[in-house]
Specification:
alpha/beta; 336 residues
């Protein structure tokens, strides 16, 4: 079922208005889709490429691999890269089993073979396009032993690939920063033994909201490390940006590895006003961001309708409002 024309035009108008404001303040380097991934390194609060230019990446996160393995393939990644001008992909490897409407979807701990297949197919596809790939240990619970084995194997496999970024813990919920810091130090040591210069991302307590805690007690031996902040614009407002501002002022480098314009539940209408404030803030501070998610669930944050094919190509008719918006945002951002 195609979207009514007047609603599509309203979305397009909102997109245009937001992007005009972003263009006026954006002074950073945005990698072109034909570029091979450049090594990235953190300097102060900024992310730089091999030439020393400030880089602000924007991209798309795939949904939990154990819910949507059908999108973890070369065709889907190539289509998003080519048609959406997407140069950053986040592959969310669901660690724990999920119960969705009475059906159990086995996570990496229960079915490592599927997780390994999805992550390697996704990363290989992104690298073949010249795009960056985030390997995301997508969990809300601490699984240190299993995470060490996972990242050790993958950092050995992709040791010579500067386009691979390692996200150690998606969204901690109940863990203290003390425990998370110890966990991160262990995993950083594991990855550095194989890929000394890789960019690493680490989450913070309470769904990546308490960014003030690592700011007060950062990891001193992390090397090329950034800390993740997550927001959903209809839920998270100025108070969270104020908290992040203080963290940045203290010298903490921030990477938004998951965000969207609706409520934190993944539902509700898109809050374009709040989203525009977040978008302007991230550009002002040269912060990279990844939009959630490439999936087909009956929820606002899923970018695709179920009728979308697994491998693309996807016409606008199979994109939801959020998918249409993200597509246009990435296209226009790549032209800045």
């Amino acid at each position: 079922m195609s979207r009514p024309a007047n609603r599509y035009l309203a979305v397009a108008a909102a997109v245009a208005a937001l992007l005009l404001s972003v263009m006026s303040i954006c002074t950073s380097c945005s990698p072109k889709k034909s570029d091979k991934p450049s090594p990235l390194h953190v300097q102060g609060t900024a992310l730089l490429n091999a030439e020393g230019d400030t880089v602000v990446l924007k991209g798309v996160s795939l949904g939990w691999h154990n819910l949507w393995p059908r999108f973890y393939n070369k065709g889907a990644v190539k289509h998003i890269h080519k048609e959406w001008d997407c140069n950053l992909f986040r592959f969310s490897i669901g660690v724990d089993d999920l119960d969705e409407q009475g059906s159990i979807h086995k996570g990496y701990l229960s079915d490592p073979a599927l997780g390994w297949k999805c992550v390697t197919q996704g990363v290989n596809a992104a690298l073949s396009c010249g795009a960056y790939a985030i390997i995301d240990w997508h969990s809300h619970k601490l699984h240190e032993k299993e995470a060490v084995a996972f990242f050790d194997a993958l950092s050995k496999l992709y040791a010579d690939e500067p386009g691979v970024i390692y996200e150690l813990y998606n969204e901690p919920v109940d863990d203290s920063w003390k425990d998370l810091k110890s966990y991160a130090q262990t995993l950083i040591k594991t990855i550095r033994a194989n890929a000394p210069d890789a960019l690493i991302l680490m989450g913070c307590p309470h769904w990546d909201q308490d960014i003030d805690l690592p700011a007060a007690d950062p990891i001193r031996d992390g090397g090329n490390l950034m800390y993740t902040l997550h927001f959903y614009a209809a839920t998270h407002k100025e108070y969270l940006r104020d908290r992040a501002d203080k963290a940045i002022d203290s010298g903490l480098p921030i990477f938004i590895s998951e965000c969207a314009a609706m409520e934190a539940s993944g539902n509700g209408p898109l809050d374009y006003e709040s989203w525009g404030q977040w978008l302007g803030w991230s550009e002002k501070n040269n912060i990279s961001m990844v939009m959630w998610s490439l999936s087909d669930k009956d929820e606002t944050c899923s970018m695709l309708y179920p009728k979308a094919s697994s491998k693309g190509p996807w016409s606008d008719a199979v994109l939801k409002e959020w998918g249409l918006y993200v597509k246009q945002l990435l296209r226009d951002s790549s032209r800045l």
